[in-house]
Write a structure and sequence with these properties.
There is one protein chain. This protein is of the alpha+beta class. Helix content is about 45%, strand content about 10%. It has 16 helices and twelve strands. The strands form four sheets. Strands 1-2-8-5-3 form a five-stranded mixed β-sheet. Strands 4-12-9 form a three-stranded antiparallel β-sheet. The chain has a two-stranded antiparallel ribbon with strand order 6-7. A hairpin with an 8-residue loop joins strand 10 and strand 11. Helix 1 runs parallel beside helix 3 and helix 10 packs across helix 11.
Length: about 450
């Protein structure tokens, strides 16, 4: 495995010393150690459209500058979303996974016989017009009017979570707060019982897990069992909703939407995966990231306490600084001259949001965390164009509410150690974040 060979202590030195053509930021150990930044800094300076050879992931073009990413995001005629939004595994890595007993079983609800082991269709991985009609079907769930109705419920839940926290004792913020609030909200959006909310959290982790390397599942067999339970749970929900009166939850919208009620079960489950990860991982990691960022930048924490009107700006700055999804992938539909390079039809093109959000030519002092930036919403974390995150306003709402309620209750939340970060080049987040709340107001 390429990841195992990284000298993380000398990652910065290695990033600047390695031959440019060998430079590969798509390494999970780099992201888990938060050591990928110098790789992206060098690529932005020297090779912003960079061919990355095959490693654990397939060969691809890495795009690292803000305006280049925007250009690709807005050119779906040349760069397709079909076939998946994440970096695909290389053939040799996939063969090793199979040798370890990995991959879905033949009877898995997620295993499409027409594309065994392949990615499931989901609207974020579609091009117009199909993308547009499926996205439009679920959009009302996160439209401004519905969010206004949800706000009191989110606030009530946030307050109850914060009131239950221990004072003067160390606890894991990710588990007690970030996961809890986002799971409650996602359960409401799916229209499932609140007692099942942490199953959503677990399944979200299982989807991204590689057995033996992270805590979600220990073995491939356990992963298959959990994925079978996940798929079966949501197929049962579909059967219930399609035979019931239309309602306002996401499953009912898909089951009764004129353009989606006839979708295959694989399209449906693909969209369930998208909505599970989109509604879970991203917001929870930004909530955790806000606590970490404010602790790393106590002057900014002091500004927020002194002027809570900075909260909306802080929310946007945190989403930029954290960048909860590190990349999105496209595939070239034709030969394209881009950034001085020839990208061939069929080539993978990876837009590194995590790098674009630190582009010095677009964002002033981008490595700094400043909650009073003049243009805090200038970031790529939600994507851009037709694929801009459908739930972006809900993510911002949850982060704003949790901090409004925090500021009412606590003068300080103290991070007591470094977080354990996710082992992934896609989800950029936290498994754990130890904190202590010294006192209540």
């Amino acid at each position: 495995m390429d990841d195992a060979s990284i000298d993380l202590k000398n990652a910065a030195e290695a990033a600047w010393a390695a031959p440019l053509e060998t430079l590969n930021p798509a390494q999970r150990d780099l992201f888990q150690a938060d050591a990928m930044w110098p790789y992206f800094e060098r690529l932005r300076r020297e090779d912003p459209v960079h061919f990355t050879p095959e490693s654990d992931f397939a060969a691809h073009w890495g795009v690292t500058k803000y305006n280049d990413i925007l250009a690709i995001e807005t050119n779906h005629q040349a760069f397709s979303s079909e076939g998946g939004i994440t970096l695909p595994l290389s053939d040799r890595y996939f063969e090793q996974v199979v040798a370890e007993g990995g991959g879905p079983s033949a009877d898995s609800p997620f295993n499409d016989p027409k594309n065994p082991g392949g990615p499931l269709p989901m609207f974020i991985a579609m091009d117009p017009p199909k993308h547009d009609v499926q996205r439009k079907t679920v959009s009302p769930a996160v439209a401004p009017g519905n969010l206004a109705k949800m706000e009191p419920l989110i606030r009530e839940r946030a307050g109850a979570i914060l009131d239950s926290l221990p004072i003067g004792e160390e606890f894991d913020w990710v588990d007690k707060v970030s996961m809890e609030l986002t799971a409650m909200t996602l359960a409401t959006l799916f229209g499932i019982p609140q007692e099942d909310r942490r199953r959503l959290t677990h399944w979200s982790d299982v989807i991204m897990a590689r057995p033996g390397r992270d805590s979600a599942v220990a073995t491939w067999e356990e992963k298959r069992t959990e994925m079978f339970a996940y798929g079966s749970y949501f197929l049962k929900l579909w059967d219930e909703r399609v035979n019931a009166e239309p309602a306002g939850d996401l499953i009912s919208m898909l089951a009764h939407g004129p353009e989606t009620r006839g979708m295959s079960r694989f399209e449906y489950l693909g969209n369930v995966i998208l909505l599970t990860i989109g509604g879970n991982d991203t917001t929870r990691n930004t909530i955790s990231g806000s606590v970490y960022a404010l602790n790393k930048n106590p002057d900014q924490y002091a500004k927020l306490r002194a002027d809570p009107a900075l909260l909306p700006s802080m929310v946007s700055e945190t989403i930029r600084w954290q960048t909860p999804l590190a990349h999105m992938r496209r595939v070239a539909k034709e030969d394209v001259e881009f950034g001085g390079k020839t990208i061939r039809k069929g080539d993978n093109v990876v837009m590194w949001y995590v790098s674009g959000n630190r582009d010095e030519e677009v964002i002033e002092d981008p490595n700094a965390y400043r909650i009073d930036r003049a243009r805090p919403r200038q970031h790529l974390s939600f994507g851009f164009g037709i694929h801009r995150c459908v739930g972006n306003r809900l993510a911002e709402l949850q982060l704003r509410i949790i901090w409004e309620e925090i500021l009412k209750r606590f003068d300080d939340i103290v991070v007591t150690g470094e977080p354990k970060r996710v082992w992934s080049v896609f989800v950029k987040g936290y498994e754990t974040l130890p904190v202590v709340i010294p006192s209540r107001r």
